[in-house]
Amino acid sequence: MDPIVYVSLGAALAAGIAGAASSFGVGVAGAAAAGAVAEDEKNFRNALILEGLPMTQSIYGLITLFLILLVSGILGGGFKFAEATQENIIKGAILLGAGLTVGLTGLSAIPQGIISSAGIGAVSKNPKTFTQGIIFAAMAETMAIFGLVGALIMIVTGVGF
Amino acid sequence: MGVEVGTITAILDTTLAIVFTWVGYKTADILWKYTPYSYPNARIKAMEARLFSDQKFSELAESKTLNNFVMNLEDTDYKPYLSNIEGYSAEKIDRALDNALADMYTLMIKILPKRSNGFFKLLLQEWDVRNLAAAVKAKIMGDVARDYIVELGTMVDKIKAIAETKTLEEILVILEGTEYEDVYQKLLLNEINLEEFETELYRIHYKKLMSYAQSRKGEEKKIIEEFLKLKIDKINVMTILRAKLHRMSAEKIRPMIIEGGSLNQRIIDTLLNVEDLSMALAELDSTRYSQVLRESREALESGDLSALDKSFEKFIQEKIGEMTRFYPLSVAVPINYILLKEHEVKKLKAIAKLIEDKIKPESIKALIGEAL
Predict the structure, then answer these.
(1) Domain ranges of chain A
(2) Which ipTM was obtained for this model?
(3) CATH for A3-158?
(4) Which residues of A127-138 are buried (b: 16+ CB within 10 A; e: fewer)?
């Protein structure tokens, strides 16, 4: 495959996988939020906050997409790795790897949605568990943050601006 | 670097294919497993928050009149069921509470995923078995069958019709086409006695439940099987101990045992063949139910099995409660809620009956605290 394919794939997968995972995560937590609110409207505020947690992964995906497009020159100039040389393929592969890292770690949005969903259930039963629910759900976020940091290192040191 | 461009792309493409296949499979598996329980379980947890506290029961116990008792239930989920009652009586309140319970089962069936709501339809049938056994027993004993019926289950109309029959043969006509027809026919022909009839009804029911559990997968199978095993063990242990109290022989007890519990055949055989109740209790001490027996030992030795029934209920509730903590997005949550709700309704019915019988609030509090 040409370098353009790897670079585009990297950008698309970073935003695509993370975005899809976020939507699944929010979907799972959203269903739980609807269930909690159906029984008691007072659960709305707590449920809304927990439901929103899995959205962050899609933001990380979007940041990575912009970075990949920027360093490869697709954004703001001509594409830098058009020629299928060994060096360009490796740089393309690094950008694909960075995109994949964010995309795959972004999948943590799905378990985060599941944790949020269980948390919404717990908060509906006992509102005092709200903070604990947030902390449990936020634990899944760490993987996505590690992924983003790793991708940034790969982009900056492997390809550079 | 001496690696060919073609080799690099081949490695990358293969890696991508493997990673995506694995991730796709795992993601689909997780989503299939948990997503369907997201809505119902959060809703059930919110419903759990409205279950009555000890303080609420205490307030209800102080109602003094049934009118006050109903007034105290005005701000609860029972209000719609109680508001249409004219002239309060414990019996009318009983029926209203049964309707609330029936609607709760219907709601569970409606909101739970298809892959597990069939279990709740089957659980509802347990009321058919209870009602049928109670109605037939009352008819044979010459009691008023209607007094023993709970208006819950999938064949309430048939059960009511059975309660109104004048002869035992009429019951057979009503049961025609149901799965209970054959076993009732055997009872009519004196091939089995009343106890065996009841056991046979439960056997049919638990066989259906067990085959349902075995058709499930993963966590669902594990949770439903565990729940059923606990319930079957409860029935078997109660049957054996009751029989031992009445000094029945192993041959007479054996047909009343329901298969499928967690107690293995060796323990069941030993229990059947021991001479008396104390030896049966000693044998059960080495099983998972030792704690249950310890709690009710004194009462048991004086011949009172109601304490054991209560301890068993508590034990089952605790075990399912543990499962809800371990599997928060699973079928354990609705099972646990049903157990809690049934317990609550049982307590409310007892309070209503005690108020009607003009029992003092202090005594009611003591009774509902101890006896249930």
Answers:
(1) 3-158
(2) 0.82
(3) 1.20.120.610
(4) eebbeebbebbe
